[in-house]
């Protein structure tokens, strides 16, 4: 589903954020991307989203070389990928319902079908009873759930998340991970960037580790983190 072949990325100014990174994620696979701050996690996700361009190598998504996509196809490509951010980027001038509706509005969905999908997504994240509220009135964990509902509402085959639990306490963070596992179980391919090793090593998913831009580890059954 996602394949990196010897991918390197150098930012203007000369900093090499990714160095010859290669890996492959199968359809429906769930993996964590870890490494300390500055290791290149966000950069790797941005290359998949085509919000940054690579300098060397190639990235295939669904068998297509995304760096050869004609520019008019890029918006369409991006809509097939759900993205969850640490700061969830919700709009506080509208309700929870309308926030989740946004991606479907952009795609020009029929109103009735869109409303049904929005409610299905809110139901998945356990927020059906909060659809009319302004997200500013919700807790941090609930806001993150709204962000997740918005990311999955158009049923993407791929879900990317960049430090999705960075602002949450451990209990809420664990709940968010359970949600991700549920989406993975319906076949969504997931790549989740997180430096929270104590949380992700407990979950027994594949773990890709970056260090200074290099992929230094690819563990399919990560060993348990030792308690501090
Ligand atoms: P992580 O997500 O693992 O913290 P990043 O991908 O954000 O790492 O950053 C990797 C490296 O690239 C860091 O050294 C960072 O300073 C650098 N970097 C990130 N974005 C830019 C940019 N737009 N311009 C220049 N350097 C950048
Ligand atoms: P629907 O009535 O739209 O089929 P379901 O109750 O079956 O909805 O649940 C589907 C929900 O699962 C979607 O609204 C969405 O929240 C989530 N989902 C996200 N991506 C996918 C996917 N690729 N395949 C299936 N479900 C997905």
From TrEMBL:
GO cellular component, as recorded: plasma membrane
Keyword Transmembrane helix among UniProt keywords: no
Record PROSITE patterns: ABC_TRANSPORTER_1, ABC_TRANSPORTER_2
Superkingdom classification of source: Bacteria
Purpose of the protein: Part of the ABC transporter FtsEX involved in cellular division. Important for assembly or stability of the septal ring.
Membrane topology, as annotated: Peripheral membrane protein
Protein name: Cell division ATP-binding protein FtsE
Gene transcribed to yield this protein: ftsE
Taxonomic classification: Bacteria, Pseudomonadati, Pseudomonadota, Gammaproteobacteria, Pseudomonadales
Record's subcellular location: Cell inner membrane; Cell membrane
